[in-house]
Model the fold of this input.
Amino acid sequence: MNAWTDLGGGIFVRQSRAFRMNSVALLAREHAVLVDPGVLPSELDDIAARVRDANPAQVTLFITHAHWDHVLGRSWWPAAGVIAHDRFPADLERTMAWVHEEAETIASKHGESWPRRFESFRPTERVAGLHFRRIGPWRAVFRDAFGHSASQLSLHLPEARVLIAADMLSDIEIPMLETQPPVYRATLEALRPLFEGGAIETLVPGHGTIARGVDAAGDRFRRDLAYLETLERETRRLHAGGASLADAQARLSTVADVERHPHHPMREIHLENIQHAYKGIDAASRPHR
Ligand SMILES: [Zn+2]
Done:
């Protein structure tokens, strides 16, 4: 199977064997931008070979968020500039033990080993909020994308009408929350004008299949939003009826559209999502002192 998808205009996507994670390479002679290059050592070698062929004058990495599967490529391009969220350094520092553990596990699972130990790194450029940026010939729009990770950014390429969604809008994973659902929902709502205005013809999720066409991209958006709305509404209903967290998890374990792909079970994630929803509702329902 060819791991590469050519989206045209110098935009290439490479899918990893690990968790079907997508790396994106924007290749131009003037400047190459690599989004979340990874995951396995052999795959990073493959991306590096593709970049060498393109022979760009400059390389910049963009890391969508500080989770382990998105950060491992840094040591293949130690001299490159790195763009990441303002909160990225703190988030990465906090999770370094997890990064090392998962990096070892995934490499040995695929019979590979790391040529060097992953070292923590700091972005050369930190962005937050809504940020427009020219990187060589590439026009990029970065947006805060909280809910899955406090250091997450999405990347919109308005000219190519491509959205690189980080860990959102996947066809194989439900939203994975690290905090209460309204935070994640606000991230999606901020993208609504893009989906409804036809600004996204190609959607590249962090994991899973690329959605092609305005309708397919919009379907992803509506599906994740519907999941979050159901999660919140049903958790709120049960909480109001006096259900405990464990009750809510038991009652909502089979709520529709949790499992999206047979090889990517989401049950544990869904239970954690219920917990985030429940805790958010519970905290809001207590009187302030
Ligand atoms: Zn992630």
Residues 75 and 116 are 8 Å apart (CA to CA). The mean pLDDT is 96. The first helix runs from residue 41 to 54.
